[in-house]
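=== Structural record ===
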Amino acid sequence: FMSSQTVVEPQQAAPDTTADSWPRQIGPLRWMVAILALVAAPCAYLQDVSMGSPWDLLIKTVMPGVALFLIWAIPLDILMAKVFKSEADAATQARYRRVIRFDLMVMLVMLLSWGYFFLQIMLQRLT
């Protein structure tokens, strides 16, 4: 016997972004990347220190690598946010627009602070 059953589709509730503050919508991982970028940005101006202490090693060796990683990782996050935004509802699209603007601001800080340093390295390699 086959009984007639009514299939009830589960309804997905739209995410309530009005209750979330702007910093909360960015997410903890993006905030950690932004904080790392803000720590790495001033180190670009300290690249002429001599290797006299462990702090010099951190500033001259580790931070340029971190900066280069961030300069590559942030555009990938922007790309993924655009992909997710294209398939989302209106509220989620607004969240991803904020995320993209946030990532662009962090990227601008990184390029302005480290751009000259990396340009000098590339020009030095050409000569």
About this structure: The mean pLDDT is 84. The chain has four helices and no strands.
